[in-house]
Amino acid sequence: MRCIRMLAVAALVACAAAPAVADDYPSRPIRLLIHTPPGSLVDVLGRLIGQELGDRLGQSLVVDTRPGGATMIAVEQLRNSPADGYTLMVNTSEATMLPFLKKSYRFDPIKDFTPIALAVTSWTVFAVNPAVPVNTLQELVAYSKSHAGGVRYGSGGTGGVLHIAVEMLKLKSGGNFVHVPYRGGAQAATDAIAGQIEMVSMGLASTRVADGGKLKILAQTGPSRHPMLPDVPTTAEVGLPDVRMDTWFGLVGPPGLSPEIVTRINRELAIIVKQQAFQDKLAKLGLAVDYRPGDKFIRFMADDTKRWRELIPAMGIPQVD
Hints:
Order of helices and strands: HEHEHEHEHEHEHEEEHHEH
CATH class of the largest domain: Alpha Beta
Helix content: 40-55%
Structural class: alpha/beta
Number of helices: 10
CATH architecture of the largest domain: 3-Layer(aba) Sandwich
Shape: globular
Low-confidence stretches: 1-20
Largest sheet: 10 strands, mixed
């Protein structure tokens, strides 16, 4: 009987202490893992969110870049960290694609993390060398079918968002697009400008390299026109609504992170994403707010995973080790 009473008291103490975890959080700096190299868009965005979130939480978010291994180096760091809210990571669209692209990628984007919130979205841009005799995306598709050898396009690497975007265009339009993978998007754009390849798939943030007519930007894959490129139509506007590629960026924690800490972080994120100054900073990077906390983020990733489970095999992209 005495043992039962002691257990009951312990349970009550634990329940009473649970809210205090969130009340006291954070009491020290938070590590923010970034799975891409310093200077990349994910890194720049992570530092921006880290600064804003740190200011509101009253503790610094210290960026820790762990690139390589198709994001798996950073993911392993996160999964091996205590579920105490002091290690977080910026996760991206690749999390729902990689399970169908790499045999060695064994992480479920929902079960193997604690999804906190989707925060930001961007889109892909299709551009060509000025010598390519087309002015619209539909003309490019027609040209790819008639041009010997098709249209060679560059991206930042096999299996990335920019690669998958053109493969989706190929699948939905029947065009003849031949992938030339690069180690980074900058070199792909440089070669497209030089005429080594006809086309490049870029993120919105990279389109400044096209200034001065160095490249012709034909379309972008977002839901509406972007202030950075007000004269560039969406793929839906040019008759290809299924060629839609949202590049998303979200905040995740280790598996088992307490709901109280998730709520605490989202309380601050909800305020940050509404601030015009924050939105203006995003716009300069070719990004836009797409805030979906907790369960909404989970449902979004479940739908995204289902989409890529069907589309990636249909594109004929083989899984690699």
